[in-house]
TrEMBL record:
Catalytic activity: DNA(n) + a 2'-deoxyribonucleoside 5'-triphosphate = DNA(n+1) + diphosphate
Subunit structure as annotated in this protein's UniProt entry: Single-chain monomer with multiple functions.
Protein name per Swiss-Prot or TrEMBL: DNA polymerase I
Top-level class of the enzyme under EC nomenclature: transferase
Amino acid sequence: MADKKLLLIDGNSVAFRAFYALYRQLENFRNPEGLHTNAIYTFKNMLDVVLNDVEPDHVLVAFDAGKTTFRNKMYADYKGGRQKTPSELSEQLPYIQELLHDLGLSTYELDNYEADDIIGTFVTIGEKEGFKVTVVTGDKDLTQLASPQTTVMVTKSGVLNLEAYTPEHMKKVNGVTPTEFIDMKALMGDNSDNYPGVTKIGPKKASQLIQEYGTVENLYDHVDDMKPSKMKENLINDKDKALLGKKLATIDRHAPLTIGIDDVKRRPIDYQKLRRFYEKMNFRKFLSELNPDGESQPQDQSEKANAKAVAFTELKENDINNFAITDGQTITFYLGMLGANYHLAKFVGFALKIDQKIFVSRNVDLLKEAKLKSMLEDKQITKNVFDLKRTTVGLNRLGIHARGIDYDMLLASYLINNENNSDDMGEICRMYGDNSVKSDYDVYGKGKSVHIPEDDQVLFNHLAGKIAAIENLKETLLAKLKEHEQDDLYANIEIPVARVLSVMEINGIKVQANTLTELQDEFAVDLKKMEQQIYHEAGEEFNINSPKQLGHILFEKMGLKPIKKTKTGYSTSVDVLNQLKDENPIIEQILTYRQIAKIQSTYVNGLLDVIQKDGRVHTRYLQTLTATGRLSSVDPNLQNIPTRTEEGKQIRKAFVPSEPDGYIFSCDYSQIELRVLAQVSGDEQMQEAFRTGYDIHAHTAMRIFHLKSTDDVTPLMRRRAKAVNFGIVYGISDYGLSKNLNIGRKKAKEFIDNYFEQYPQVKEYMNKAVQVAREKGYAETIMHRRRYLPDIHAKNYNVRSFAERTAINSPIQGSAADIIKIAMINMQKKLDDMHLKTKMVVQVHDELIFDVPKDELETIKKIVPEVMQSAVRLDIPLVADSGYGHNWFDAK
DNA sequence: TATCTCACG
DNA sequence: ACGTACGTGAGATAA
């Protein structure tokens, strides 16, 4: 017979993980009474997985009883300095216990003891009684309980990804046995429990020492025999700390529990109570799982109450003539399309609100009726929408030139908080506590099963509900914008730039298919040749595009040195291959093969696939995606067309002007991010350099290498200085710079130190940026664009450091994005005012591309740089360089 | 769907 | 002691 199984869960630590796993969703998980439910929800998900996996007969979820335990008697500061549990989590703990009881699972807590000790004691009992024991926790400390009978599952990321610690796995990870792990911790201490361990001893050293000496006690018996070293001194000096650490780290396996193994046997689930619990918590997913047989599917009470059905009328042709709409009135409009790519997506229907009445229809052709069309095109009739650009492009396909859209719910919510970053109206509504709108994927399905609901009620409710939500949340969102001082950013940058982008997307850019197919043939021949050579060198045929197969060939069959590993095997990235170049000629061939294969598949084939019937590609600029305020470009991405290699650049020859004798004109900002840095830091030296018009990288080289003149700067020096300049913008580290420049870390640090000496205010800016982010919880651009940085307070060094670098970089990258957006708005206005036929067609972060008729070239040459350079007034000049030619390749 | 790799600023 | 440059999108492979 199989062993009996005992499952022990560390309630507090798992709840803690559960809470932070869905921390970003915190405000989305609230029941109607306002209780946060994210941790409860995630805890249940974890339970499902673990119960299913372990199939235990006995289960105990242990909780910490109170603040102080017997460990505080040994060491008053035990767990001192720990931030207290956020109230959003502690309010959920009683409900987690309630849920566990409804599920027939036992919970237990004991005064003066931690959950760890309860679990440790039950492990002892369970092992004695012949149970197979599984422990689930978020705390690595409990791995000391691992044994042949006991496996300790520790959450890795979130709560569903668990790492199983058996004694063998312990050995692999820490190099020590579970019992030795206690001694190891005694030496290295524990920051989160706030006890120090021995000075200058971390996991690595501690593991080595314990592997040699077995226990802390044995180590001190032999400490005098160790050869003199700083470490030996530290060990002797900190002996007390080590011995105390051992006591604190040891889990009590004989705590005076008042329950036994029979008390934790699983009881039947109380379905009635469970259903009431899920209803109270508004857990629709779990509720629907309660009735797999489908009989009387429980109606979600709270949702019903929340979703006051919105009244609407199906629009008929005759109604249109009865519309009485006058200038200055506002209507709310929503155009439904199936799928993300609104250039091609199927129309689902529309909804609009006029005169307090909501109309809906599946038939978008009704919009072309003269009265409706002129309303939508009337600038004096203002419109509320969700996604101005999508709506404008969609209407354009119906021959309607939308005007007067001056409120965009999507843009507003993106500016207010782009952390969760959804473009689904249902999700956005829920962020603001409005549960009335379903997500599009709930209504239309996702993946293969996307379809328009046949039931009129379902579709019309959805569309009408959106109209109501746009109006209901408008005041809230506008108030938030004001509170954030973002009204200007919203009204004078994002809304106008959305209009400009609509024009650009609708115009598209002409791409010559035959140029691409010619390249396709050339590359195909080259690839075939290289393939054969590589197979020959390797001695067998394999898939060069498979990192797995390539890794096998290079590092196992050919015995090359694996320089870097990835999660799944050997890394074969450019970095690695470049370092192996001299080992074998196959490396060079693989690099070239990869480069060409990339260009062939992504650019040649990729672009050919997206050329529309009009001979153009119509990208979509995602305006509400990036964390920094930049645009991104998809279907196709026009912001990463190759420019760095000769073969890659050929792709640009396919991008041509509308008219055969016309021009592609390109104009890009020179060093815009560094100029922004000079501006926001106010650094005198750097500003002076820009005002004088120096080559900034050469100038930096001169300064950090202590030269008298830029004439003494060698190309190598300039290259290095350039890397430092870039590094600064990214929130530099000596490690990152050393890797980038292939130099020692020490040398990299020297460069950085020199840099900060020469540009002291840049250093100040960086410190201040981090400090401000810590105080406010977000970083901000010149135009008040925000990026929230909750991780700036993270305990984990890496997570926190990342947030700190982000705090430095975001205002720089974001302000540059603000500036080019302003330039685009001014540029489009200029083109319109001057009635030019020239079209602005592409934006690549610091660069604008134009499709110019022959006779407008001279005008464009003059006005584009002017407009870009005068987008904003800074303490230093903005500079824009331009070029032109009969295709994008020649426009450098 | 996740992972790796590589294209851009 | 640890592991790190900032921001993106797309294709191919392998699960």
